[in-house]
Each structure stands twice: as structure tokens, then as C-alpha cells.
Amino acid sequence: MQADEIVATLEPWRARNRRPAWTPVVEAGDGPATASKFCGTPWTGPDAPWPDCGLCRRPLQPFLQLDLDDLPDELGRPFGTGLLQLFYCTREECQGAGGWAPFADDLSRVRVVHPGGGGPATPAPEAPAFPAKRIVGWTRLDDLPGPQDHDDNGLTYTYDFKAGTLRFECPEVGLDHTGPINACPAEQIATAAPGDKLGGWPYWVQGAEYPACPRCARRMALVFQLDSEGHVPFMFGDAGCGHVTQCPEHKDVVAFGWACG
Q1: How many separate domains does the chain show?
Q2: Which Gene3D superfamilies does the record associate with it (predicted)?
Q3: Does the model's pTM come out above 0.90?
């Protein structure tokens, strides 16, 4: 079988695994404190003060705020309500000391807050100031799982490097084919979209790294992917990619982690 024949045979598998994702449409400026935005001034309150870095103890840089009540209608409300916020320390002296592991609240802080009475707290005056970009819309795309997620979804690869062959197995479509090892790369069958996006499949730079909820041990789901040098002018390690994830059951359990090549 040629590569295009393998991909065509796997189209029912591809169709089953397609997920909608949305790329943000932005405009320069901050907007209201509760608006969805990159950087800028997030909402803070008496019960949700501006967080500090666990290392240098100085205010963290806001990276992302999502109004979970104002996302695309097609998405529904899988993430609950409130504001999802991500903060990160961008100071050079703190880089290389962590920040990539979910639930390691040293360089990063991710949380869901619920604006209420009492009024917003005064923003931290020392917080670094990346240019604010308000999210004013979303562009839909069809996303597919990357190779790191193929096995869990019924498509397996067996590499025989000595023989120079690759075996494709997908019982769902009756595929069991062995061919040259480079004839049809897994990325040609299906891969996740890179870049900043809401929902969809994670674009993994290394292996799949879904965190487990510390309360129920369920695998957490992607909420938002934040890529290096996208709408936030910051690079995670060596061109890394970060993911905000959430427990499907406990909506207040959120995490952020990233990996690079």
C-alpha cells in the first residue's frame, strides 16, 4: 500500500477522532478586567490576589485569561464557569529552575476564579508588562490527534529497524499492513495543530504528558494550548509548547505544563 492508500483506509478512524478547535482572533488592547485576553491586566480580588513567583517572590506575568462563560457555542460548557487565568515568571534569573511540570507552583500559577463582590484588588505595580491582546473572536478548525495519541485511540505502529519495516494496525478499519519504515510517517496520517488554540488535541513536542487529577486520578483534558512566541512573546525553553489542562469532573483542578525539543 502507498501512503495515500493507507491514509484513505484510515479515514473512518480519522473522522472519529476529529475534534473542533479554535484559534483566537485578537486585537491590541486590554479591555475590561474580566475579558478574555493575552497578558494585560487580569481580574483579581480579595480571594484571588495577584500571585507571586515561588522563587523570586515577585509578581508573575499574566499570560492568559479566558472567560469560560464566553467561549464558542459549539464547544458548550465543558470547562465550567468563571475566569481561567495563567500567570508565569519571565525573569531571567528564574528560568531553568522549573515551570514545566504540572502542579509545580514555582514559576507558574493557573487557577479558575469567580469574580464577585468586594471589587477587584489593585494590580501588582511591579508585574512585568507584555503587550495586552484582547480575544475578540474565534476561528474554528478540525483538529486530529498527533502520533503520541494514536496508540490510545486504536492505531498502533510496530517499528522493525533491523528489517527497515513499519507495521500499521487498526482493527477498527481492518488495517494490518507492513511496509517500508519511511513510506508513510505517522504525522502524515494525523497530527495536531501547533500554535495557540482552544480545545482540540494537544500538540506534543515530546511524548504525551496528560496530568492526572490529584483528587480522582482521572486524566485531565486540554483546555488551551499556548505555544512559544505566539500571542504571548515568550519562548518555553527551546521552542516549547505549553498546555492548560483541567479535570473533567473537578473544574477547579487545572494545571499548566510545557515541554521543548
Answers
A1: 1
A2: YwqG-like (2.30.320.10)
A3: yes
